[in-house]
Design brief:
single chain; about 400 residues; mainly beta; Immunoglobulin-like; five-stranded mixed beta sheet; 24 strands
């Protein structure tokens, strides 16, 4: 073989060896550097992108892919609030405690170490802030103004106010005694009658349904009243003219805010010019007490007017007077004293009836009775105890 031919063979062998070496080196390098089938493709969704603080979000990256024959080996989660997690499955749950906007990232890594990342944003709504003004204490029977107008939503959204007046009572029967809606609006009013600490709740809700609740308490102190029964002697007078069989009915309420002790009623007829004398009847009916009485006028002697009288004493007991007592309100105390069992005699409407029962024909003049009726006068003198209640300092 000539020298030039031998040189050509050697060059060909060297070229072949070099190509084989390059091919082997390329194969080795491809296995070490990840330059295999390719990188994964990450994808992520959330079941909610707006939540309230304290609520959870489900993140799902199961639609992420990686070229065959590689497989996704792990999912690396960064929730944006300082918390991270690594899972083998492509779904995870996370609770956000703090409010704010958070960027969530998932990194998908396949079994060759190749990776890809995807991000999305989660808005965590902050709950409303409650500011409330209430009195430190009130007296029994007084009203308390509860004012929460300074409450606000940090994001500036409108808010609603719901007041529960008593956290010891479950008005709506849902098992939670703090969420009854006894009143709505930023300002409300409550009247308390029981001495002691009284607690209620205020719930404030924003436009996303986030809520805050505040338990409030008011101290209720007793009210002291001085009770005095003041004796009064009251006199009533009525008069008129009645003919035979006519009647006059008089109605009145003699003892409002009082306890009646006794009375004397006197019906007096005018002296007849012509004889014989006339006779009238006087009747009294007190429906609420179930008592009535009727009398007829009498003529004691020719020098006196005909008259009739009804008397009743000891109608009620004389109560203690000039003492101090605790009560929820003056109205409640007055009601209890005026309506004390057994001490209500004479309360309500009284009905007096004056009737001309016997206007005897007088000596006729020209065959005509000159006096067919008579003038009458009714006088009632009544003793009553009027209740005076005044509040005194504790």
């Amino acid at each position: 073989m000539s020298e030039s031919a031998l040189l050509a063979v050697v060059k060909t062998d060297l070229r072949t060896f070099f190509c084989i070496g390059i091919l082997l080196l390329s194969t080795i390098l491809s296995g070490c550097s990840g330059m295999g089938p390719g990188n994964p493709n990450s994808n992520m969704v959330a079941d909610r992108e707006i939540i309230n603080a304290g609520e959870s979000v489900n993140f799902d990256a199961r639609t992420s892919t990686t070229p065959e024959p590689t497989i996704i080996d792990e999912f690396r989660w960064n929730f944006g609030d300082g918390n991270t997690k690594i899972t083998k499955q492509g779904i995870v749950n996370h609770i956000y405690i703090q409010a704010g906007t958070f960027e969530v990232e998932v990194t998908v890594v396949n079994d060759e170490g190749a990776s890809d990342s995807t991000t999305l944003r989660i808005f965590v709504n902050s709950p409303p802030q409650i500011e409330i003004e209430i009195p430190d204490y009130i007296k029994t029977g007084e009203s308390a103004i509860l004012d929460a107008t300074d409450s606000f939503d940090p994001e500036g959204a409108p808010i609603e106010h719901f007041w529960d007046f008593d956290i010891n009572v479950d008005d709506d029967g849902d098992g939670d005694p703090t969420n009854d809606k006894n009143s709505e609006g930023p300002v409300t009013e409550i009247i308390l009658i029981d001495v002691g600490n009284h607690s209620g709740a205020l719930t404030v809700v924003d436009d996303n349904g986030a809520s805050s609740i505040l338990i409030w308490s008011i101290r209720v102190i007793s009210r002291n009243f001085r009770v005095v029964w003041e004796e009064e002697i009251i006199e009533f007078d009525w008069n008129g003219y009645l003919e035979e069989e006519e009647s006059e009915i008089i109605e009145h309420i003699p003892g409002p805010n009082s306890r009646i002790i006794e009375f004397t009623a006197t019906l007096t007829l005018a002296r007849d010019i012509f004889l014989p004398e006339d006779n009238f009847s006087l009747g009294i009916n007190i429906p609420e007490s179930g008592w009535s009485s009727t009398v007829i006028t009498v003529h004691e002697n020719i020098t006196k007017n005909a008259s009739a009288q009804i008397e009743k004493g000891d109608m009620n007991n004389i109560p203690e007077s000039g003492y101090t007592v605790s009560a929820s309100s003056a109205t409640e105390l007055e009601d209890s004293l005026l309506n004390e069992p057994g001490e209500r005699f004479g309360q309500g409407n009284w009905k007096w009836t004056v009737t001309a029962v016997e206007c005897d024909p007088d000596i006729p003049i020209d065959e005509i009775d000159p006096d067919q009726g008579n003038d009458w006068q009714l006088n009632v003198v009544l003793t009553r105890l009027t209740l005076r209640i005044s509040e005194v300092s504790s």
